[in-house]
Amino acid sequence: MSQDHAGTAFEAFVALIARLRGPEGCPWDREQTHRSLKPMTIEEAYEVLEAIDRGDDEHLAGELGDLLLQVVFHAQIASEQERFDIAEVVERVADKMVRRHPHVFGSVPAATSGDVLRNWEALKQAERAEKAGEAGSLLDSVSSALPAVLEAYQMTTKASRVGFDWPGAEPVLEKIDEETAELKAAVRAGQAAAAAEEVGDLLFAAVNLARLLGEDPESNLKAANRKFRSRFRYIEERLEQRGLSPADSSLAEMEALWQEAKARERSGR
Fold it and tell me: What is the tens place of the pLDDT at every residue in 87-96?
């Protein structure tokens, strides 16, 4: 698709959303607000991630369209209130991309992706300081509204770009052993508050390990979730064949079926 075609298609889509929000449009669409769209915006972003994990281009294209709908919808609501419109949204992000790529559009050298990321963080921190009138924190750009795993990943990634990081995966494995021992001690001592804190520390260490291994912990956990879902469904199906449900079965029966599911996965069946 040419840039002209893409621009025309985008303009037509913006006009379509404006019509849906108009007096002769859709009653449901007219009722929506930024706040009412929040759950859908989050949901669409996660469905994009799921499509990426599935490696399904057709599905990904559809989900990216759904996410774009949220962007245009929010901009249309703001436009109706004369706050900003979709053109300003696009212009702002385009200006930001130019400003944050001085190695492309300016004369700042950046020979490696590491150089780019260090420059990026310095520029973002300078922008925040200009807005707030003070230096602020490197981590201010990481929203505390993010899911906890993603927040931990983003914070530690940003800290690593300025040299605050583990030297490698091995020390983090030792940290995980340390946190596990502390968690065991708290649980065995019946110290609920301490155990809760140690669970958090253990999860944080696991996020660091995934990052240092070059993995995305959110995707790692999603994969584990899918594996659990698939294995538990196998348990349900096998029990159903016996005229049973999980509630009618013992833990030993379900554990045996769980091991069957694992064995089937290993054999590729």
Answer: 999 999 999 8
50 within domain boundaries: yes
Structural domain total, the chain: 3
CATH code of residue 147: 1.10.287.1080
Q: What is the pLDDT of residues 3-62, one digit of tens each?
A: 778 889 999 999 999 999 999 999 999 999 999 999 899 899 989 988 998 888 999 999
Whether 39 is in a domain gets the answer: yes
CB neighbour list of residue 83: distance below 8 Å, 6 or more residues apart: none
In the numeric block, which tokens belong to residue 155?
Answer: 């914070």
